[in-house]
Amino acid sequence: MNIRESSYGYWSSARAFGWVAAGACMGIGNIARLPYLMGQYGGWVFLAAYVVALLIVGLPILVSEWALGRWMRDEGSAGFGRLAQLAGSSARWGWLGGIALLGAAMVLSYYSVVAGWSLAYTFRAAAGSLVGDAAAATQRFLDLAQDAERSLAWHTLFMVSTCVIVAQGFREGMERAARYFVPTAFGVMLLVGMVAFRYGDPAAASKYLFAGDFSRFGWRGAVEALQQAFFTLALGFGAMLTLGSYLPASQTLGKLGLAVVLLDTLFSLLSGFVLLCFVMEAGVAPAPGLQMLFQTFPQALPTGWVGIAIGTPFYLALFIVTLLSAAALLEPLAHYLMQRLRLTRVFAAVAAAMLVWYLGLGSLLSFNVLADMRLLGQNFFEWMQLLSTTLIAPVFAILMCFVVANLPRELADSIAGPHETFWMRGGTFLLRYPTRIALLVIILYAVGLLDWFEQLWS
What InterPro entries does its record include (predicted)? Predict the structure, then answer.
């Protein structure tokens, strides 16, 4: 069965799609997590393992999602159901697309809360109110997170911005935004990086990132590399599946996937280097994730206009890349409503955004009003993270690997398109063996079973 024509149109060019896909990957986790992991697990040793993991885990799944989305030209649940029927299986496989949509809604609900903080910090940096010692930086962040009204305002503003992009269409909205936002984010980070050579400590940052130390790598470093390679590419939530549905049948995917992986990795390294230049100069210990962005970095900023000139563009770049990532997560939800309920794009985008906004209230209130409400020791925000990233995304990916690796040859070739036989067959081999094993390891590590095995062994 040949690839159908898209009823919604196509991306204007491969380059435009590359900007969109790269923007979907360049989120908050990339900026803070990869540099921290490199410092914790052996510098270039971890980076080398991460690159290998990208090639055997991230890239095959990324290209497969694009290829499946392009072939389906439909929302995920209907597309997987039709694929299963053609492969001689049950149409009940359609639920696979449904769990991806659920994961996208859950991730975006708490991601919007965090991204709203980045917008708040952009204005605070411009006002010169971020500079301070460790206690002041921590208290400033807690004041924001624990203030339900202010957090609600930033959460709402961010979701409205995301909705506006998606409502305009994938070309007029996402593509146009990505054409400007992704190069702007790179340009801003390069400019701040040049300033870092004058006001930061690039030597210490380079040593932290790239000094090799095999003794710090271990099995945990290998698993963290696998985990980061999977999550950095926005896989498992139907985003890449939906973005791929607007690709023409003639578009080659393998080289495009390599380009997106390269852009994503370069941005992670560049932004991490910028962060660490100022953190090391201030003599502050690097911290993981949100703590690095909203507590450690602000206290490392120089005083006066220099701190304003550094902090404002940095948080602005952080905001625009989170906006692109959020739009990529909202798109499959809107696409589902357009296909199933026959809503116009505007109504579908608004309905999906409202659903996510309501779901995000639970995460927002987890830092203040609902802070003491916990289930098995986890609050609502932590449960959203646990269920979406620890279970839904890797489970979707491992099941998708099973589906793709077991397709009849003729059907697999039609999904790959006329120019992708080599990439599809090589990718199918990876999906059948190393990628599935790696995803299983990621799941076991995320739920704590590998730590339990280590304790049992020792």
Answer: Na/ntran_symport, SNS_sf, YocR/YhdH-like
